[in-house]
Amino acid sequence: MPVTDVQQDIDTRTLTIVAEFAAPVERIWQVYADPRQLEKVWGPPTYPATVVEHNLAPGGRTTYFMTGPDGEKYAGYWQITATDEPTSFSFDDGFADEDFNKKPELPVSKNVFTFTEHDGGTRATYVSTYESAEALQQVLDMGVVEGASSAINQIDDLVAS
């Protein structure tokens, strides 16, 4: 299991997930840079993702939807704020309607994904910061820890194939 640690801090409004992969930093970067690979790991196994638009450049946008077991589609977007290939990228992640417009009633998180060399592989640190403690609690109640962990845990199989 790649996920080695999960920390939630209501005071700082952050959720931090750390994972370790037996693949070089450049390979883990490719998982996020290539929309077809990203589709295999962004959603949990029972909610696979379909990436519609993908641009990791600062100012770029990624749009996607996850399809649940019942066929229901759940849309989201990333607004890319910074990129330092192959070691990190930052983005705002939000829930969207079917036209990929922001759903204002649901939280948006500011995310920093960092990839560093560790023991011949990669340590990935995923930090999500929310506007309020209530927003963080809302996504925790929605199962973000379980969903994100099960999604991240799919990366090992992808990079091994």
Automatic annotation (TrEMBL):
Annotated Activator of Hsp90 ATPase homologue 1/2-like C-terminal domain residues? 22-159
Q: Which Gene3D superfamilies match?
A: 3.30.530.20
Q: Which Pfam families match?
A: AHSA1
Which CDD domains does the record associate with it? Answer: SRPBCC_CalC_Aha1-like
- State the InterPro entries in the record: ASHA1/2-like_C (IPR013538), START-like_dom_sf (IPR023393)
Family the entry assigns:
Belongs to the AHA1 family.
What protein does this entry describe? Answer: SRPBCC domain-containing protein
Originating species: Rhodococcus globerulus
